[in-house]
Amino acid sequence: MAGKLMHAVQYSSYGGGAAGLKHVEVPVPCAKGDEILLKLEATSLNPVDWKMQKGMLRPFLPRRFPYIPGTDVAGEVVEVGPGVTNFKTGDKVVAILSHLKSTYNDDIKDYGAGTWHMLSTLLHTYEILAYGNLSGGGLAEFAVAKKSLSVARPPEVSAAEGAGLPVAGLTAHQALTQPAGVKLDGSGNQKNILITAASGGVGHYAVQLAKLGNTHVTATCGARNIEFVRNLGADEVLDYKTPDGAALKSPSGKKYDAVIHCATGIPWSTFEPNLSENGKVIDITPDASSFATFVAKKLTFSKKQLVPLLMIPKGENLNYLVNLVREGKLKTVVDSKHALSKVEDAWAKIIDGHATGKIFVGP
Ligand SMILES: NC(=O)c1ccc[n+]([C@@H]2O[C@H](COP(=O)([O-])OP(=O)(O)OC[C@H]3O[C@@H](n4cnc5c(N)ncnc54)[C@H](OP(=O)(O)O)[C@@H]3O)[C@@H](O)[C@H]2O)c1
């Protein structure tokens, strides 16, 4: 592939939204060391893609301009680096394009109370931002992925079904299995779980994964998606624009052991009365006020906790999710598919924040 050019979409400065994306011809990247080169079949977008462009993760991400966004991909292996033995040309894979080298991966298994957890979470946050978790490259014809963050895609799983999984699926999986402590084999005590924004990318996976465990799931979404979220398996669904929905009140009077909080802008005071004695809010879009609540709850030894969560990509978990899709236990819902040549439509849609399931870009 050396010397060949490919079509890619990139931006060279912060801001600009869809109009800030530029279609360019750039050299096809090379697979070095432990990397594989993929001919891309599908890329799914996440809110972090537009947030990076807007400058919300500056000065850490993107690491440099011009930047080709897109981290969640499915494709065919066309070249392998010298350090790769587990993939060969022609293999179909799902990958997350990230250059994270986390040294804390295993420590975050313990989300128990305590100072170590607080320090470890802050270190994670720093590390992820400082090292630049997401390397991008998915809005192009070819991209390089690390072998450790790439997994085989069996024929039963379509490219889009696979490409939807990395950021959204791994976040839902991590939130449920680590801080919320849900066992996806159905063992363990029953837990009452609230999932906010259950119609979105993370939320729609979270509802389905939670129902693999021993859980009662309450979910919030807009009126148009109530049936959709019920069909994903939620036991009760609240329209977030009604008074009870805005108050997050379970229709059956349940108190939540864990909230997988995929929406934004809901204060602690709204969650607090709805939590069980040891209830946790797992905030996947933590801002300054969530970090303040997190620290305040730790310092006052509160039984009710707020846990800021940033997804740590792990190949073994991605493989687990791909296999659930293969077995028909998890589905990726397609909001819309867009050609790379019309990527601006997909970009405007992800910025809009009203996707039902996942938004895809493909060749
Ligand atoms: N911590 C991490 O590592 C991590 C990883 C992934 C995502 N995130 C963050 O998590 C958030 C969710 O991501 P996503 O990919 O799921 O987003 P998404 O797919 O864009 O979510 C869109 C959905 O959210 C619904 N929604 C919006 N506000 C809501 C509210 N107040 N109550 C109920 N539903 C609401 C929308 O419904 P309507 O159209 O009806 O309004 C829409 O269906 C984003 O802020 C993202 O940046 C963090």
TrEMBL record:
The name this protein goes by in its record: Enoyl reductase (ER) domain-containing protein
SMART domains assigned: PKS_ER
Domain Enoyl reductase (ER), first and last residues per copy: 16-361
InterPro entries: ADH-like_N, Chloroplast_QOR, ER, GroES-like_sf, NAD(P)-bd_dom_sf
One Pfam family from the record: ADH_zinc_N_2
GO terms for MF: oxidoreductase activity
SUPFAM superfamilies reported for this sequence: GroES-like (SSF50129), NAD(P)-binding Rossmann-fold domains (SSF51735)
